[in-house]
Amino acid sequence: METAAEYAIGIDIGGTNTKFGIVNHRGDISNVGEISSTNHDDINDFIDELYAMIKPAIKSVGGLDVIKGIGLGAPNGNYYTGTIDYAPNLQWRGIIPIAKMITNKFNKPCTLTNDANAAAIGELMYGAARGMRDFIMITLGTGVGSGIVANGQLIYGHDGFAGELGHTIIRPGGRLHWGTGMKGSLETYASATGIVITAKEILAERVNEDSLLRKLSNEEITSKKICEAAIKGDTIANEVFQVTGHILGEALANFVMFSSPEAIILFGGVIKAGKLLLDPTRESMEKNLLPIFQNKVKLLFSELKESDAAILGASALVWEIKPEAVTSGGN
Q1: What is the domain extent for residue 41?
Q2: Which residues constitute the signal peptide according to the record (predicted)?
């Protein structure tokens, strides 16, 4: 039976699009929609459009009285301060007090976290991590994000920014990151962007070897196209995933030896490659683990729809459900 304040609004701000939905306690999402994250130079104009889009959804479930609050996931979102701090893939620069701005606009309390942390909370409550007290969520999309749960607690660190595993250096002096200026970070190899770079490098090195990818222009080569070519048996496309899995597996081995999780859950558009990515990643991870860690950590794909996980996780912030409360009663 539904009660007052039965719903939360979950919002996921991405580098390209912002998605939202109305979520109840059971994790049922309704009134899903999205707007562009790039159409407004002024953050106030963005929030105005977001409010205009969500307002009919609020009305459809019974108005503001049945909305408990708003949960928000965003790149560089700080749970402690409610601010987005210097997000490299958003056009609003500096420190943005977005939780306060949305609270004022919607007249409902807003809680903010990092977008990858929101996905981890969604997986914890409704997906493959239900019942777990120790796991790492790795989001493989345009970039590489992560959320770390240890001893039933989402790890935020002293300043709210813990869990940037995508920016750990896995190849010292390696690829230059397009946004941070750092060299050799995991994101430059294991993200969709990194996969494309790897493909172009191999194509350039082996100019005399045929490949379906050579039929595409540089601009047309995407991680999806590489995956399609690999499924068709293309040698170079398959090697791209071997290289990517090798590097990702090395990084995951480091993460395992850091926090000894029960599972590592992979999430995001890149996992559509399935076994092409999973098999070399698992092999490389196990090869680079100390014996005491080997064959203990499950490597899983997310059980949630990509479009739902961050919305679900963001909405969970509203119920003030902490990870330890969920895992102690999970099933």
Answers
A1: 7-120+309-320
A2: none
CA 197, distance to chain mean position in Å, is: 20
Tens of pLDDT, residues 183-207: 999 999 999 999 999 999 999 999 9
What pLDDT digit, counting tens, does each position of 156-185 carry?
A: 999 988 999 999 999 999 999 998 899 999
Residue spans of alpha helices (H) in 18-132: 43-60, 98-106, 115-126
Measured CA to CA, the distance from residue 269 to residue 128 in angstroms comes to 17
Highest-scoring range by mean pLDDT, 61-65, 138-142, 181-185? 181-185
What 3-state class would DSSP assign to 273? Answer: helix
Structure tokens at 204: 């350039």
| Element counts in the chain: helices (H) and strands (E) | 10, 13
Backbone dihedral angles phi then psi of residue 149, each to the nearest 5 degrees: -115, 125
- The distance in angstroms from the start CA to the end CA of the chain is 22
- DSSP, collapsed to helix, strand or coil, labels residue 279 as helix
Q: How far apart are CA 87 and CA 14, in angstroms?
A: 11
115 and 154 share one domain: no
CB 110 within 8 A of CB 82: yes
- If one counts the domains in the chain, the total is 2
Q: What are phi and psi of 171, to 5 degrees?
A: -135, 85
- pLDDT tens digits, residue range 65-117? 999 999 999 988 999 999 999 887 788 989 999 999 999 999 999 999 988 89
Q: Are residues 88 and 145 in the same domain?
A: no
**What pLDDT is stored for residue 319 in this prediction?**
76
